[in-house]
Every structure is written in C-alpha cells, then in structure tokens.
C-alpha cells in the first residue's frame, strides 16, 4: 500500500529556519533536541508510530506526510517517511490562524460575549485564508499523487476538513476527527456545512463512542468507525536513578510528593482549575508540589502559526501562582524530552486532567502505563474508559472543590493509589499500539483492497 497522510501539525519542528532552502533534508542524521523536536500533541504521538508499524510489518510500502510548517524545509526524509511541508505567506498564515481558532472555539463550545454564527465566520475575510490553506494542501497532495500513485489518503483533524472535497480523485479518502464532536456544542445550523465536507470522505473515524451518533445526526452518510486513540507503550521506558535525580535537580524538586498535569498550555486544558484546587490543599499538605508539564501547541509556537495564546496563558497562570502564594510549589517545566517525561510520570503520585473539553486525553493512558491513577474531567473523551473510584476519579470541569477533594483522597491513601494505578494499567491496554494498529489496518485494507 502507498499511503498519504495529511495533518496541520507537522511531525517535526526545527530549531532553525529553512526559508529559501528547497532541497530535501535528511532529518534522521540530525540530533533531536538540538536540530529538531517532535511536535507535541496526540496526532503526532499516535500517527508516527502507526506509520512505523505499518512500514515495519510490510503493510505500507511508501508513506508520505503533508503538513503545515512555515519555517521548515520543503521536503524531509525521516526514518523512511517522506515529509512535505506547506509554506504560506505571513498574511495568509495569520488569516488562516484567526479563522481556524474561531472554528476551534465553536467546536469546543466556547462562545465570546457576541457569539459568531456560521455565516459570520464564513463571510469573514479570514475564512478565505482557511479555505486557501486547504486548497494548497490538496494541490500538494494531487501533485504527489501524480508522482507516487497512492492507494488512499488519510486526512487528520478539523483543520483539514475541506481538503477531501478539494481532491480531484475517486481514490479512497479517510478522515480522522480528533477533537470533541459533541452534539450539544455544535449548532444545528452547522449541519449542512459539516455534512458537505464530511461526505467527501468514504470513512470517518472518531475517538469516542458517543461521537458516532452526533456524526450521523449531522448528516454524514458514509461508514463511521470508532477507534480509541493509542500510543506505542514500548516507547515509554523506566528512567534510571541518575535520570530521576537530574530531573529533580533541574526543576527544583526535593523529596516532596508530586501531582503532575501533562498538557499543552491552553485555557481549554484547565490549568487554572488545577492551580486553584491545589491552593485549597497546599496549606493542609506541606510536602507536595504541582508539576505542570508542557508548552504551547504548534499553533502558538514561533515555528508554527505564531499565535500568542500559549504565552499569554502561561503569563496568566504564573500571575495566579504568585497571587495565591504558591511560588516554588507550582513548577512549570515547559517542553520536556521523552526521557524527562518518563521521569515526571515515575516521580508522580498521580496525575490530573481537568480539561474544560477534551477530544480524548492520551496523557491519561501515559499515566496508566506508569501505574499512576488519574483524576479526569467528565468532559474529556477518555472519561468513557474510567470507572469512577476504580481506575481513576471523575470530576466536573467547573467544580474546583471536587477536584481538591479527590486530590486529598489520593494523597492520603497510598494503597488506594496503588490499586487504582494497577487498574489503570489494565485499562491502558485498550489504547495499545497493537490494538490500534489492527483496527487501523483492517479499515485501510478494506478501503484499498
């Protein structure tokens, strides 16, 4: 099978610009952390190991990945993958980012004081740039198809939704929707708009069972599949004592107990709720720190869309920490390496994910791999897999007192943490790479013949 994948977020973000450089770059010879980093987020965390599995097992003969990367090289070869980066002018990039953020907010149920209707968004000047970005992606895909002759196209996430309708081919097209698809959040007036684009795909895959019904109600007539997101558990190792000590030293951690929140810096993730809940227990439990792991998304990075919401959100959070008298007890790590992430999970007593709205939440699965229980918002897609009080705790995203109470419960009972951590580890098998690989291959092979 020859497969093309398309997503907004690139697999790799480079530490220096390749503007004006049009030769193919062999990234496999570069140094991670020095020349490039993997883009954070569930899409790259899931799609990359899936492609590696498919190539290693002979399911995929050739794989190409088209994504947005304004400052990256036009072509990259990395571990057998051929990466193609879309470049946009500053004006188009800015307009696309503004329009994309409006769509993202609406699909997450976030409305401003004066909510925008579909007509308001579609007739805004910036929406033309959103359409233009998808058009550029489709043109790149068709250019590559003339060279490679792909068997099928696999398009990822809402930013790329119009791409399928712009591909001038009858070859199979699959769309994977990663963010929430909640009936209560999507206005009825959007039904025709969404169904027009969704029905350009032969198959749509969603992350949670409850999203399937919404998809059908919104007018999709093709085949719908539900596959829980997955990670390659073999990529998560056990840090050495030296690595754990180095992590403690780097972030000023002593022998305190640690509560971790691993999430990109975005208001949707609920960091403010985590900090306010932590403030309620900090005076009662002196030997505990809150570790906030992660930085901004690709959209908020200078190598990406350059949106400033990640930096703005961090400034607000650090001000909140100061105001609540928590300096030195709430630690922001920023971006961490894979080994440092493993150290964070190993040292944690448990993790929290108090998202206002979350498509799924793979960081909970990561926590389970280290047999750490998690406190999770009921608004997160992964809440489908949590049996309250058995493999984790469920909390309402707006109930800070409930979150603080659950944190106290876990801090006070080591045996409960161990029992729930073991139950979580068993649940994580539902999101294993092997299971995801089998489900994905079954769908892809049924489409490609």
Task: Report what the structure shows.
The chain has 449 residues and is an alpha/beta fold. It contains 15 helices and 17 strands. The strands form three sheets. It has a nine-stranded mixed beta sheet with strand order 3-6-7-5-1-8-9-10-11, with helices on both faces. Strands 14-13-12-15-16-17 form a six-stranded parallel beta sheet, with helices on both faces. A two-stranded antiparallel sheet has the order 2-4. The longest helix has 24 residues. The protein is globular and about 65 Å long.
Feature tags:
449 residues; alpha/beta; Rossmann fold; 2 domains; 9-stranded mixed sheet; 6-stranded parallel sheet; 15 helices; 17 strands; 40% helix; globular
Summarize the structure.
The radius of gyration is 22 Å and the shape is globular. 43% of the residues are buried. It has 2 domains: 2-230 and 432-448, Glycogen Phosphorylase B (Rossmann fold, 3-Layer(aba) Sandwich); 233-431, 3-Layer(aba) Sandwich (Rossmann fold).
